[in-house]
Amino acid sequence: MKYIQSDKNPQVKQWKKLKTRKERDKSGMFLVEGFHLVEEALTRKDDVEEIILSEKTEMPPGLDYGSVPVTVVTDEISRQLADTETTQGIFAVCRQSSESPESGQTYLLIDSVQDPGNLGTMIRTADAAGIDAVIIGKGSVDIYNPKVLRSAQGSHFHLPVLNGDLEEWVDRLNGEKIPVYGTALENGSVFTEVEKSESFALLVGNEGSGVTKELLTKTNQNLYIPIYGKSESLNVAVAAGILLYYLKTAK
Q: Rounded distance, CA 93 to CA 18, Å?
């Protein structure tokens, strides 16, 4: 194990840069924090470049990190790297996935969702529902934002989560005869009217303005969830969960 004491160390400076989207995009790397996320990252060891451990943190005895290098740092450096107020003192430096689904049958397409908690929750829900891939369109929060990673609870390491051009993806899915369902009140159908399909793509949009009109014109059908109480609308992550599970089990 290597031991770093100075926060002026070039390696420490590089890790700290990974807290910015600019550096994550430039380097193709990102940082996860906490025992659970590090453990999940290690399910794909080839994508883990390094584990960082605070001198005040013990390596969990059951953590299978194989030949992944471990660097021990001071508690002060650990706190500088942390995105949480009370850090567990363990991090992993990971490579962004370039995995692309070649023969997926079910997709979640996300258009301009800006809240990290919402995005992470939808990635986690898609994982739980057995969706093959999540495609994030422009205008959305960074896939590897620390709050997105925490909300997704490791699902980034379970299925492809990709940035992509949603218009191109909708065209591609239409070409593959995979029905694409948008979410919209205008010219929409109640979601329970959808016929069963082994394959589908669900397209959800921005918390305030929904899916862009250009994308909605390309869908096979647009769906909405009825509101029976006095609330004006459902949270986008909650709506995505209802629709994904219904589409997976529709008869």
A: 9
